[in-house]
Amino acid sequence: MNYFLEFAYKLLEVKTFFNEKNIAIDLDKFKSGKMKKLFIIGLMGSGKSTMSNKISSIVSHVNERQVYHLDNCAKKSKNMTKDKYLKCVNAVVFENRYKVVEGLALISMYESNERLRQQLLNNAMIIMGASALVSALRGANREKEKGLERSWLYYFYDELYRNRTRWFKTLNKIRDERINMPNSHIEKI
To answer: Which pTM does this prediction carry?
Structure first.
């Protein structure tokens, strides 16, 4: 296969240009209290934080204090090690109470952490459908707001080729496995 075709295929494979609808799986069970956790997964800039804040305002048994942004685990310490980060993520994910959890770590740890994988598969989930391009533009805009000047092209190229291809494949795997769980109620939101 020539380089151009390989590049074009990769762009299509990772849903580069077109957004999909967000998918909610068993959201009704979380709203009714039958499931204690709602995991929101998606790429950086896909709208996970915005969605988690919206959910906390409409679900009566979840308030703002029960919304966990896993990015905060990395921000807790200037000397954050990988072990400390994993310990923080595990503490949030496995605590047994009603909560909304969002973060890229859910995707990046899915295949290497069987216990986390089972938590994701057995609780309610929202999968964000933002394309790689939209995510890259949002990421660049967020960085600009923080005073860091990198172009959207940097995010698009860097994230697409370094991480997003792998993350999209894992995200698709999570979606397929979760949708195929027995008695799942699936809706596009």
So the answer is: 0.84
